[in-house]
Design brief:
Blueprint: H1 3-9, H2 15-21, H3 35-44, H4 50-62, H5 64-89, H6 96-108, E1 111-118, E2 121-128, H7 138-150, E3 156-158, E4 167-169, H8 182-198
Antiparallel strand pairs: 1-2, 3-4
The protein binds zinc ion.
């Protein structure tokens, strides 16, 4: 997979944010992922290995019912996340029905926490037990739960470009990051405000 694709898919800064964003591009409206896009995301975010990704890619052929079940579970989880994140950035209440798909996955998940290297430091990462497809979204659900617990203190932001649907984590030093992508949404804003001033 080209680096540019994984960089674009992983600009949210947290696994659950990237999952909620996928497969949309900076500056574009949100839409549901296809099976291929879902598998590409799982690979890009290292939730599954390349071999497991290749197996999953073939699943709609070998077991269409299983693939359909996974995809609909992914879409339900993603919908819930987008609604919860949308409420969080507007400082509104998160409703229990949006959280239900996260809890359903947390309930069936087995795994453990592990310290993994994160740049110069360490972070606590949830390692889901490999195996059945039920565990595919375990790490996403865990990441989502952590963000929701942060509540209004969270650095979760929505891109300031009104035609963009992406969320991101503001880890900038000044906490004033406004765009999912400076190069795309930030630049578009600069160009349009220049045009307004000089139009
Ligand atoms: Zn954007």
């Amino acid at each position: 997979m080209p680096d540019s694709i994984s960089a674009r898919m992983l600009l949210g800064g947290r696994l659950a944010v990237d999952f909620a964003n996928a497969p949309s591009y900076p500056g574009m409206a949100a839409r549901e992922p296809s099976w291929e896009e879902l598998v590409v995301f799982l690979e890009a975010s290292h939730v599954v290995s390349r071999e497991r990704g290749a197996n999953l890619m073939a699943l709609p052929e070998s077991d269409p019912q299983a693939a359909e079940k996974i995809l609909s579970r992914a879409i339900r989880l993603r919908e819930g996340l987008r609604k919860a994140f949308g409420a969080m950035v507007k400082k509104e209440r998160i409703q229990a029905e949006w959280i239900a798909p996260i809890n359903e996955i947390l309930r069936i998940t087995e795994g453990h926490d592990e310290l993994t290297q994160d740049g110069a430091g360490w972070k606590l990462e949830f390692m889901a037990r490999e195996g059945g497809v039920d565990w595919l979204f375990a790490a996403v659900a865990r990441s989502a739960a952590e963000i929701i617990v942060e509540g209004s203190h969270s650095r979760l932001r929505a891109c300031a470009n009104p035609s963009c649907s992406l969320y991101f984590f503001d880890v900038s030093r000044t906490h004033r990051r406004r765009w999912c992508s400076m190069a795309i949404c930030g630049n578009r804003h600069k160009v349009s405000s220049f045009a307004k001033r000089h139009g």
